[in-house]
Amino acid sequence: MYQEFWRFLLYLNGTGIFNVVAVLAIAMIFDFFSGMVAATQTKSISSRIGINGIIRKLASMLLLLFFVPVAFILPAKTGVAMLWVFYVGYLWLEIESILENYRKLGIDIAIFKKFLAEIRKRK
């Protein structure tokens, strides 16, 4: 069973799913720092909100990593598809949050919104 799981992890590595996790981690870092800058600029910075944000990000990452063994027990390639949906969906939400922080900073995000709208249209 353990050998099969390790083979599955090697298989996942070939799908590029871990690259999405890396991009997601980078997006989380950008989101945290852009949120801190936005809160500082709008004078709404709060240690409670910041700590809650960090805890939410850690819990989200743990939850997303929890689904790797779940994907292993699902039949065929259903588990890999599930991971892609969860990871890309969460990445999408992180990007939306970053754009919201940029908007709070007064940065024009129209070009980003057009880009995201174009991606939505192509689906």
UniProtKB/TrEMBL annotation:
Pfam families documented for this protein: Phage_holin_4_1
Chain ranges passing through the membrane: 12-33, 54-74, 80-99
Listed GO CC annotations: membrane
Chief place where the protein resides: membrane
Keyword terms of this UniProt record: Membrane, Transmembrane, Transmembrane helix
Membrane topology: Multi-pass membrane protein
Cell compartment(s), UniProt: Membrane
InterPro entries: Phage_holin_4_1
Family: Belongs to the bacteriophage holin family. Cp-1 holin subfamily.
Protein name: Holin
